[in-house]
Amino acid sequence: MKNKEKIIDLSKYEDPTHGFLEKNDKNKFKDKESNNNVKKKEADKNTNRQIGRPRTAEEPLTEKTSLNLTATEYNGLKEKAGLVPVATYLRNVMKEKKII
């Protein structure tokens, strides 16, 4: 059996959105526009704000150093550091002791 495509004449139906705005509240759509204008004004006030991650120091950390430790020393530092990376922990300890 061949599938016969049915052709439906839609011209006899009215456009479902025809007159929708006239029949319903137009104020709903105006309120959205006015809210957008308020948000734009608030955004304009905040244009001087910096976007992104805040800086942690006055100058970027560009210089690298390496340190040789024994396995016992490294494991001890790792335990003291906890969830913080060892390098970050060492840097904070040196800051607290006013070494750097």
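Next protein, fold it too.
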Amino acid sequence: MLRRSIAILQKSLPEGHWYTAMAKSYLAACYAGMSRFENAACLYEESYGVMESRFGSDHPKLVKLREGIALLYRKWGKPEMASRYDPMRATRDEP
């Protein structure tokens, strides 16, 4: 269902639209829940780039997306990648 929705969004919206990116992030979360980590990572990374360009790094939508990506990498056993997206890292790293 999500894949079909994404296909419709891609046909009807401009390339790189944030609605499509959000739909892809929802599909990525589903894949992560099924332990299809590579599929999830590709979709999350693509979504992240679009969302960051559209909203900036501090927007609540991007913070939520980073949480999902960090969770994916923790579940996948890649803590070094998870730390790149940990939304709390920015506040911990500030002087």
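About the second fold: Confidence is low (pLDDT under 50) at residues 90-95.
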